[in-house]
Amino acid sequence: MSLSKLTASGEVRVLHQWARPAVYEMWLARLTQAVYQGIVQALNLEINQREVVRAQWLVCRPGYGSDWHAVYVPVWEAMDHDVKLAAQFIGLILWEVMYNRGEDWYFHKVDKTVVNEQDLIEEIQVLEYFRCDSFWSHVSTA
Q: For 47-64, how does the pLDDT look when each residue is reduced to its tens digit (9 = 90+)?
């Protein structure tokens, strides 16, 4: 099916092809194929049950912010316990999983304020994915 971007101006852009970035390939080489497949399977199981998806909602235990479910800990370890890099790596894995799913999904960027590991406030952008059917049903009733 497709993964489509919702722009700030309300435009919908269907993505047709995604080439893995070189840095992503390098990071993937730090995981075994079995670990990677376990992560993909865990993400897909969670996505199957949701209409809206953000990486943190899938990877972290509810209410604990940075306490990752065990299946995702190898990503953090592969990034030498660097939380920011691990989050970026998980984001790329989730992107690829969403891109390869059989249903139509939309995504957009969400601005978010977080407190980083030095207790400094940091502005970041995260991707939020919406299942196609649920997105259009909300739009048509709004």
A: 999 998 888 888 887 755
